[in-house]
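Researcher: Re-running this chain for the archive, since the previous output was lost when a drive failed. Same request as before.
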Amino acid sequence: MPKQFLILIYCCLFLSATAQQDTSVFKYPIQMDTVVIMAARKGWDVKGFIRRVQTDTTFYKAFRSLHIVSFTATNDIKVLGKDDKVVASLYSHTKQTERKGCRGMQVLDEKTTGDFYKKNKEYNYYTAELYAYLFFTKGTICGEDDIVAGHMNEQGKGKLEKSKAELKQLIFNPGSHISGVPLMGDKAAIFDDNIARHYDFKLLSENYAGEDCYLFKVILKKGEEKSVVYNELSTWFRKSDYSIVARDYSLSYHTILYDFNVHMKVRTAPIGSKLLPTSIYYDGNWHVFTKRREKVKFTSIFNY
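Model: Regenerated structure tokens:
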């Protein structure tokens, strides 16, 4: 919809009078386009949709489902130097085969440049190590499922397990309180009153890749960059079942101990009876005190 059709509407205009006292529902003003406004006037439950945005698990479930299906993947990882020239890279095709509750991965082809690997074939870059931890499989793994309950906040032992848990919160549950990251506090909790005031919020009706969707956008207000973690968060929810078909992120934060600036785009699609990731694009620049800065771009393409 053209910008001139966007008007500032408070959610309470479309809810019952008691909604203002319901602290479980997001209460900041949201810009809506005419399609959403008309749907709300006809009885569409804006209140319920905002609650769904806050509690969605379909996105996380889509990634957990990767553990119980067969697929091939294209993995393109590039490490950039000071002049944004590629100093190390990996390009590979992998195939995961799932059979009788067990999965294993085969590397179909692989090409690396620079010092992507150490001499012992370990990863020379932390981002690459984390990527492998999330998407590559060693040996045979059995007994997995795509059940979400009880897994979102779990943390294993070891630095990599803790980093994975923190990353999982930022990607799959934006707006949550991220524990274990020093000096961040609750700055990632975009739906909390003290953080939400730094943002503008939009709810639009939009067609995305042939799907009729609601687009929920979280946009940082000008001059508030140092107050929060998410600069922008856009999520496309399929109207038919409210599953997430696409999500774009922009995150950054700076402290004396670490800094990061990350952009991500994730796409999903219904495959059979499941919602599964089809592509991930990542562009990240981060640095931790005592470690070298890493600027990495990667693209993952999944085929089922």
